[in-house]
Amino acid sequence: MKTYPSFTDTPLIKNARDELSLNFHHQWELNDRGHRMTHFEDVFQCAMYINKELDLGHPEINMLFAGYFHDLFAWTRINHHELAYQYFMTADHPVIVKYFGPPFYEEGACRNKKPDRLLVALACRQHRASYKGQFSNQFAELINSADRGFPKGAEVLLNRVLKHKTDTLPGKSVDELMSISIEFLKSKAGSQGYARYPDLYLKVFGEELKEQMAEIDQL
């Protein structure tokens, strides 16, 4: 599979990431290993890549915060997207206020004159592979696309799924975990899987995605 570059941090991004790590690591450490900082950074880098390839013009700080907040509450797989949306809309945490202004207390009515806070919150709400609705805006589509990740091949995806299943299904044997992980990966990201790949994703990774799906189908 193709390899993809990592973007060099600007001072803004380096400082903001350091602040996120210092202030929110305790929260994401509650998650399984498939939904921690490594994944957040992958989503950020993938968003940056799509943004650059398609010349979309979205601010890098928005992509960083969406990458780090979309799965912040992934310890619950039921409504973590809604928790992320509500938290980012309403939190008065100083790190969020520093970059995105004061909280929104209800959508469309606010003291906040920065629409970027709403953009990031909506992207968190609409990031899941199972999301079937219309995207609220292009940024939400970008983050949903980035959450599918760079198409790095079946082995890389399977390793992430295996970490998730190992952490969330204690007591299963190694063979059971591998079987469960393969079945899950096929059902989600194989050629007949449920995962959504938005138009932005297909414009950039369409051919590589076909190759990856074929690899997954053969597991």
Explain how this protein is built.
The protein is mainly alpha-helical and 219 residues long. The chain folds into two domains: 11-148, Hypothetical protein af1432 (Orthogonal Bundle); 154-217, no CATH class. It is 61% helix and 2% strand. A hairpin with a 2-residue loop joins β1 (104-106) and β2 (109-110). α1 runs parallel beside α3. The radius of gyration is 17 Å and the shape is globular. The relative contact order is 0.13.
Number of helices: 10
Mean pLDDT score? 94
How many domains?
A: 2
Q: What's the CATH H-level homologous superfamily of the largest domain?
A: Hypothetical protein af1432
Order of helices and strands: HHHHHEEHHHHH
Q: Low-confidence stretches at least 5 residues in length (pLDDT < 50)? A: none
3D shape = globular
At the first level of CATH, what is the class of the largest domain? Mainly Alpha
CATH topology of the largest domain: Hypothetical protein af1432
How would you classify the helix and strand content by structural class? mainly alpha
**Range of helix content:** 55-70%
Radius of gyration: 17 Å
CATH architecture of the largest domain: Orthogonal Bundle
Strand order of the largest sheet: 1-2
Write down how many β-strands occur, each being a DSSP E stretch of 2 or more residues: 2
Query: What percent strand?
Result: under 5%
Query: What is the distance, rounded to the nearest whole angstrom, between the alpha carbons of the first and last residues?
Result: 16 Å
